[in-house]
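Supplementary Methods S3. Input chains for the assembly prediction are listed below.
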Amino acid sequence: MTSATVDTSADHGEVRITLSGEIDLANSSTVDEQIRAAVSGQPTAVSVDLTDLTYMDSVGLRLLFDLAAHLRESHIALKLIAPFESPTRRLIQFSRLDSLATLQPASG
Amino acid sequence: MMTARAEASAEDGSVRIFLSGTIDRVNVAAVEEQIRAAVSGRHTAVSVDLTRVIYIDSAGKWLLFDLASRLRESHIALELIVPFESSVRRLIELYGLQSLAVLVLVRREDSSEVGPLELVLPARPWSLKNIRNALRRWLSGIDASRRVVDDLLIAVGEASTNVVDHAYETEGGTVTVHLELQFPAVVATIADTGQWGQPSAGNRGRGTSFMRHCSDDLWIDRDPTGTTVVIRRHLIEEKTP
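Predicted structure tokens for the full assembly:
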């Protein structure tokens, strides 16, 4: 069974989400719910760390697009963290998700 | 004469059970006891290697059905490893075990070249993880680079997701994944026998563009009897981002 872990921490209104494991059609709705819950309070900024995600395809990208659109409506900045050369980073750039969020190779 | 041997890998929580000989009503109770002992712990993956099995009768069939259903309750898909061209494969398919278990078709051990990988799985979301596991194993066997592995996982993953998501109505069906080394490339074929519903807008387009992005050549052939997707990915020449 596909499994992913969604870890959340908050620091002065900034919500940091760390995704690890794999995301596909089998667990995307669960992950989606967890991400939505994490940003349900009024954060000032949101970051999603994808460094430890070992598999993601268009199903996972869709979650991130939905999140980016949702945050944009409330004028909340979104930062995505994906290392150079990672497949996740390539898909983010190829799908132009980086036009809706700041893309960084490492947290900090 | 029948033997059963279990090998558990503590590293990834998987267990593989090797059976050989015949499985029939004479020895089915003994086999069942050994399998139960082998899968009594918490495992992430369970496979039964049937490559040395000569015959499985209906008592053996129910043993495998029972094991597959119990694992399904814990969201684990049973993997059955069967030779490509064998009477055991025909029996397994005749019994309909591919509706509950993942069939991993392998060439006989005596073949020196890398044989193709063939998987027949239920077109259900939980199969996607099994497809990736089998792909990673097969691709590491041909020393594919990390970039090639990443690309093929995504390309095959998108094609399989489409089958799971759109090919069949409520009655369900199977997805067949075939990987073959055609040096200097890997050719992956993903096939279904579904009718496909109306194309839904949005995500499917992105999935297809990812498939194209992660492969060197892509063919999609859809007709009323099903859809076949063929993905060709070079092993050596690195694709530019």
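Strands of chain A lie at 4-11, 14-23, 45-56, 77-81, 102-104. The two ends of chain A are 33 Å apart (CA to CA).
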